[in-house]
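User: Sequence in, structure out. Go.
Assistant: Echoing your sequence, followed by the structure tokens.
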Amino acid sequence: MGIKIVVLPGDGVGPEVTEQAVCVLREVANIHGHNFLFQEHAAGGAAIKRSGTPLPQATLDACLGADAVLLGAIGSPEFDHLSPNQRPETGLLQLRRALGGFANLRPVNSYRALAATSPLRVEIVDGADILFVRELLGGLYFGEPRGIISQDGNSSAFNTMRYSVSEIERGARVAFETAMKRRRKVTSVDKANVLETSQLWRQTVSRVGAEYPRVDLDHLYVDAAAMHIVTNPKRFDVILTENLFGDILSDEAAVITGSLGMLASATIGGAVDLYEPVHGSAPDIAGRGIANPLGAIASAAMLLRHTAAMEHEAEDIEAAIRAVLDAGYRTLDINRGAGGHLVNTSEMGQLVTEAVAEVADMRLAYHAV
């Protein structure tokens, strides 16, 4: 099978982690005889340096002509002096809107090998398996009007949180359809005791949920959800929420895995799917070869699952990640406790690449028996 993948390494540690994800994808292609065509383009701060804009037209055209986009990270403090519409993050928002993906899937799993790495107690995180479904194109990040105004020497800023029924419905359906393939529970997170947008959110999600009688639905206020994520994460299966809340809560949930560097994401529902690790550009460690590439590699597995419909190949990558962690290999961010084998970014990528081949061989041998 052939698929066209546009790679946007981006800023900070983005180029380092995407390089390893691409290596793993190339290994999968070699093993199974697939044809993955990679095209690399600039976005974010890297694009500003080259062309003065965070999302050049050539980059956007390439993304729109691809089957999937694999993104590293966007953002750098060296551009903080620019006006908001010229900063790297603006390019990311423009890309998300252009690609049209409205549902951001963020899985958070407790790896048994890393249970002691979490700042939470082992008995709290062991067995936790959450999928966040974050609405990605509405809310405060995209709502209008917005801006900063100054009057009589006093500045003020404003943003608009806005949601329509159709925006809520389409995200809710992704959550319920996904839950049907998991443990059949959806927790919808809002702030309906304060916000009118959340009141509409809760009403709409409840109505859509009635169409899925086999899925249990409950509602939580966002502050309560934040508490339960760190005190009882195993109560959750699928968490459905709006843009801002989903951004914050899924980052908080990184404590379950021990590091943001472990988290992957997929943005689906539009013309072209977008895949990226949850972590940011981490400029403080960029270029040092110590970034954790597992979030980017896990994002590549999601690409194979959701865009290429290659479930076995996706499972092979995920099994390879578990095997490497079970063998004790750790990047700096997850190297807590005794007995770990500290490796750098490229070494971790190479270990997973080798493990993918071993896992695939074992699976093919098993099915041949």
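User: And one key feature?
Assistant: The chain is about 45% helix and 20% strand.
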